Each structure stands twice: as C-alpha cells, then as structure tokens.
Amino acid sequence: MSSQIGRNIRVQVFGESHGPSIGVVIDGLPAGLAIDDKAIADQMARRAPGQSAQVTQRREADSPQFLSGLYRGHTTGSPLCAVIANTDTRSKDYAALTDLPRPSHADYNAAVKYGGYADMRGGGHFSGRLTAPLVLAGAICAGALRQRGIDVGAHLIQVGEVMAPALDPVAVTREDLDRLRQAPLGMADEAARQRVEDLLDDLRRQGDSVGGLVECAAIGLPQGLGEPMAAGVENRLSAALFTIPGLRGLAFGAGFAACAMRGSAHNDPYTLVDGRVQPASNHAGGVLGGITTGLPLISHTAFKPTPSIARPQASVRLSSLSPESLTISGRHDPCIAIRAVPVVEAVTAIVCLDLLFDKGGTYAT
Ligand SMILES: Cc1cc2nc3c(=O)[nH]c(=O)nc-3n(C[C@H](O)[C@H](O)[C@H](O)COP(=O)(O)O)c2cc1C
Ligand SMILES: C=C(O[C@@H]1CC(C(=O)O)=C[C@@H](OP(=O)(O)O)[C@H]1O)C(=O)O
C-alpha cells in the first residue's frame, strides 16, 4: 500500500479505523515552525465524526498525541509523528461484511487483493477515518503557509441537486475563507444549507445517501510554482487529493464546463494591476502550463454518495457464492462530501507547502 503524499514534505498516514490508533509521520518540515494547538484542534473538529446530526454518530475526540518532532511548541526538524486514538469502535457492525461485501465500498476488492488478511473493520485502512491524520498534517502546513501570506479554504457548493454559490475566482479574500471555515456543514449560504438539511432528513428516512461537490481556493501563492508536464501543479495536487476515499472527480478552474465554451469566453485576458501583468479572469484556476499564475488556485472535487446505505442491496455470499440481500446497519455519513471539506483544504495546504519547498527548501520560519 502506498499511503504517502508529497515530494519535499512527505506525509505518511498509517493505521486502521478499528485498530488502536491511526496517525501520521511528516518528514521534511522546517525546524522552528510554531505549532498552533488551537488551530489544529479547530481543523480536527471540523472533520471529526459525531459533531452534528448530519454526519456519522461515531464519537472520537480526535486529539493528537505527538510522539516526535516537536519540542517546546516548535518543530525540531526531525520527522514529526503523531497518533490519534480510535476509541468508539463498534466492530460487530462489520462482522457479517467479511462474507457479504458492501457494494461500492472496498470490502471485496481488499479481500481479494490481500487474501483476507486486511483488517476491514470500519473500512480498515480504506476508511474515511484515515483522513483525520491528513487534516492534522494539513493544519501544520497551513500554519507555515499563513506565515507567507498564503491561505487555503474550502466549502461545499453542491449536495445532490442543491447548489450554493461558488467563490469569486479572482477576488476571493482571506476573510471569505475564514467565513467558509465557520460555516456549518461547510456551506456558507444559509438558504442552500437549509435545503441540504431537509434533503439529508429525507435521505435518512429513505436509508439512502448522496454525493457532493467541494470547491477549494488557495490564495496568495506566488507566480511560478510547479513545472510543466508530469511535475505540474495539477499533477501533484491530483495525486494527493485522490488519497481521499470517495473522491470521484477533480477539475481545475472552469474544468469540465470549458468543453462547452468558446476560446474568446474561456481565455483570461492579461491586464496591468499596479504595474504587474495579471489575468483579468481565472478560468485557468490559477495554473497554466503546470505553473501557478499568481491568481487563486481553484479546484472542484466531486464525492460519490456514501456506499454504506441502510436500504437492502444485492450482494453475494462469498463462502457459498450465492446471491443474497444485504442490509447494512451501523453509523455512516449520509454525505461524504460534508466532512471531506476540511480534508480537501488540508491536502491542498500540504501540496502548496510542498510546491513552495521546490524552490530550494529555503523557507524562513
Ligand atoms: C470523511 C469521509 C467519511 C466517510 N464516511 C463513510 C461512511 O460513513 N460510510 C461509508 O461507507 N463510506 C464512507 N466514506 C467513503 C469510503 O471510505 C470509501 O468510499 C471507500 O473507502 C472506498 O473508496 P473509494 O470510494 O475511494 O473507492 C467516507 C469517506 C470520507 C473521506
Ligand atoms: C470514523 C470516521 O468515519 C468513518 C468512516 C467510514 C468509512 O467507511 O469510510 C465508516 C464509519 O466508520 P464506523 O462504522 O467505525 O463508525 C465512519 O464513522 C472518521 O471519519 O473519523
């Protein structure tokens, strides 16, 4: 299994959802970086399970214990290791699924690939639980970015058929991103959020789940990060974002809408702003030729509906190879995208810091 992202800042996650703990080793952080415990706790709480009626009811404190790489509130320059305990595991929910795999989860694929040895309780290493250490790593990297005037924020702009307004891809500010971080369900638009809450209530009654779309913006990035072709910003961000389970689609800037546009509408004309050459619009999403343009780096990530739903579904009993109906009990998110918001933000922060370190690694804390 490869559970590492980053080139200069290497983030390795480990653990299984129902093992004793999950965690992260971060290598390549500069020494002397102040660790803001409150900022980390806030980000962890945005993602944590059991925080509202609209998410999985598993309860975890998600308070990290640092084992190395941290001394007197600052990074030491050696690998930082942190563990997060798994306390509220209910493994009996998963006992029957070894022989009767859930459609669209990783149960059956893991059983075949790892010959039945993978610990799939709670989704094991495939679980959304493994995004907790990613958020921890992202919060640490975001602290380093903030010192350089760079901020990353994400929000939910679609759940099923409910849409919320997207950010202004040129003029998005740090205040906008702060506001998004405070928004319940990751959706700042109140009217849209109310419709999402109603939709989630309906889905709970129907035993169903729904997909969603997350928009993320990184602002304050200098022009010139990244390289062409295989080392492009999109390449590196894509590889990292696809570590998030349930992610099914990723687009930059105008994304798939670009295929229906004319060049005259899609092109971002250059203008002069305070004597500097700058694109006047941002259909490019802040990246051209694999290199940042200096405008906000905008991504859209599409999440599938949660696979574990309460409705009866067709599966196959593996021991007898007979078709059987499966009804899943247990605690599940009705919409993965809601708790994926801070995860997308975290992974984007990790990659942005990683890109900054391409420049020779001379980051002054
Ligand atoms: C934050 C988060 C929470 C998730 N919660 C659940 C859940 O409660 N139930 C579930 O079946 N899948 C959940 N998933 C998705 C599964 O982990 C994922 O679909 C599965 O591991 C298969 O991976 P894939 O969808 O990337 O192919 C969650 C994913 C994330 C990122
Ligand atoms: C625990 C978390 O989410 C879990 C992600 C998940 C899955 O299949 O991805 C399934 C559920 O696990 P369990 O059955 O153990 O409650 C979620 O609760 C978390 O995000 O911290």
TrEMBL record:
CDD domains: Chorismate_synthase (cd07304). NADP(+) binds at residue 47. Pathway: Metabolic intermediate biosynthesis; chorismate biosynthesis; chorismate from D-erythrose 4-phosphate and phosphoenolpyruvate: step 7/7. It catalyses: 5-O-(1-carboxyvinyl)-3-phosphoshikimate = chorismate + phosphate. Its EC number is 4.2.3.5. Its cofactor is FMNH2. GO terms for cellular component: cytosol. InterPro entries: Chorismate_synth (IPR000453), Chorismate_synth_AroC_sf (IPR035904), Chorismate_synthase_CS (IPR020541). GO terms for molecular function: chorismate synthase activity; FMN binding. Reduced FMN (FMNH(2)). Pfam families: Chorismate_synt. FMN binds at residues 125-127, 289, 304-308, 331. Transmembrane segments: none annotated. Homotetramer. This reaction introduces a second double bond into the aromatic ring system. HAMAP family: Chorismate_synth. NCBIfam families: aroC, PRK05382.1. This is Chorismate synthase. It comes from Peptococcus niger.
